[in-house]
């Protein structure tokens, strides 16, 4: 018999304001919180498990009162009735943010650190069968007090984080200063069984011969509670999700508990690929455990078969899937600061929009999403670049290194079967600002001091922490490439760049400065922009703080549009010379006052979305130009199919709308290619009102791509006051306010 009992509702919580709960033994079932003198809060019933800020804060996204949620730990309590005939019982948690201790019937079962990986405890020895049982959980997610070098004037960048939770205290208008999610969320449930069973999820490892379409591998898990004298057998079945046919089956006798490995091999495998390069074929694995011929337990898993490599030299950083190079068109994704607000339906909405925008990769930026997200990426053929939670500054000692590796590898093991994940990122922007001179430094000087090509020689990369986590990760998962330090361009274990010229690199920069430069693989570029006026009005306090900007929303959004269009097309026209792709930052706003997204927090598009729709499709036609002159017209084809003999038409108009050049050319466009169609260097600035329209037609006359450039040389200037000023109270960029 197998039974699953949901325990995710009807909990009680209290905040332990003096952190005296363990001394007072709150974990004992008979504990009473209302006794005089102990100063313990009363138990308060909650209907669901979510981050505590979402349950109790009127405004969970900003406000000084939010700091109180993290000043002291919280206790959870729930009672449940255990059936009389329980054989084995396991208590499971899917998500607890961040530290927790768990007691059942007054007995400490253990502790856990993290917020994204599930964990469990065996209850066989503590369970009271046929009686009421009490679960008590202590949860904390404390603030960090220490700042490196005691540089409080640069706290945002130098706070020493002590949790593997990358974005808390990321208060440069990404996550507001007072927001630090805490609480039990997801699901809590009991697994009850009379006999042996699987103790951990399936892990699927394989080697793939893409030429012969042959796959050879093994499925591993662990089995516990085998009874002596019984006859056990495990059956593995592999089925093709597309045809629903069984492609492999095997049976193995089992004589002892512990690790179980089942071999599989079959031919004519359908390869998983990203949506613009093939099809995301998937296979379902099912392992059944039998005792004396009767099935007693089942474990399921899913994966897709593909090879992935990241070719890195001083000249290139290039993804290769199934033996073929891939040009990455990516976006970063962090849909809400509170993951417990997410759902499969919200993920599906966002991922459909991401695919419609032409993106073939998502960078999950310094956090881990819920399992539903990765399953949908697998099904939709959207690649994932998965960050760890390392961001900027952490405590660098042996103790923290061990904790970081343990938490990170727990996440890696949880996600390993997902074919959509192409690479792990050990650290985001390690070693930045290490050489900042602190005497009298201000924000403008800080922005100017940021290295434009990362810090490859940082001790974090070369001496401690970085080498340890890189070695641990490559040992744990040898099937994927690992990026050691994102934004360490010249490091051959890393190789990607971030570029915020015209944006976060300071208001003295302009996006056109990237003209003539090259990058191997960009994984961050973009600019924040206010949402529409109607969205801004949805939060009264934020609107009042930014009210004076309402007449400039169009101007701010137009600058976002112009920067994103220029950067995106700049990378497209460097295809494999040397650029292998880019990741725009950010697809949607993370909260009501963080504005990097193409969509605002309420799901409304900004003008920047139009730039992506014009410039990010697999087939594009682009004008290359700088502040002073035109250069030429380029066609890019990221599809594997040849476009064959096409027609390119271009029209150049003056400020009166009169055509001063209208021409066309016949071109042959191969698969996965870049082609310069025509040279236009005879058009020089100043040329007021010069506009260019481009169109690409298939041999049958169908329109494959178009693009328009109005008043080419009139490039908007960087918004005054951005990015150096913000309101820390609300977590909003002030622009020139």
What is the topology?
Blueprint (H helix, E strand, L loop, with lengths): L1 E5 L4 E5 L5 H4 L19 E3 L5 H5 L17 E8 L6 E17 L2 E8 L4 E4 L9 E9 L14 H4 L24 E11 L3 E2 L4 E7 L4 E11 L7 E9 L4 E10 L3 E9 L16 E9 L2 E10 L4 E5 L4 E5 L2 E2 L2 E6 L10 H13 L4 E4 L6 H10 L2 E5 L10 H18 L5 E8 L14 H7 L9 H4 L3 H11 L5 E5 L10 E2 L23 E4 L7 H4 L3 H7 L6 H20 L8 E4 L23 H8 L3 E7 L4 E8 L6 E10 L5 E11 L3 E7 L11 E7 L5 E7 L16 E2 L4 E2 L4
- The best one-word shape is globular
Poorly predicted tracts of residues: none
Instruction: State the end-to-end distance.
Output: 66 Å
Give me the CATH fold name of the largest domain. Answer: TIM Barrel
CATH architecture heading of the largest domain:
Alpha-Beta Barrel
Describe the structure.
With 737 residues, the protein is an alpha+beta fold. It has 4 domains: 2-193, Galactose-binding domain-like (Jelly Rolls), CATH 2.60.120; 201-303, Immunoglobulin-like; 321-530 and 571-617, TIM Barrel (Alpha-Beta Barrel), CATH 3.20.20.80; 628-709, Sandwich (Immunoglobulin-like), CATH 2.60.40.10. The protein is built from 13 helices and 37 strands. The strands form 8 sheets. Strands 1, 2, 3, 4, 5, 6, 7, 8 and 9 form a 9-stranded antiparallel beta sheet that branches. Helix 4 runs parallel beside helix 5 and helix 6 (398-415) runs parallel beside helix 9 (466-476). The protein starts with a strand and ends with a strand. The model has no long low-confidence stretch (mean pLDDT 93).
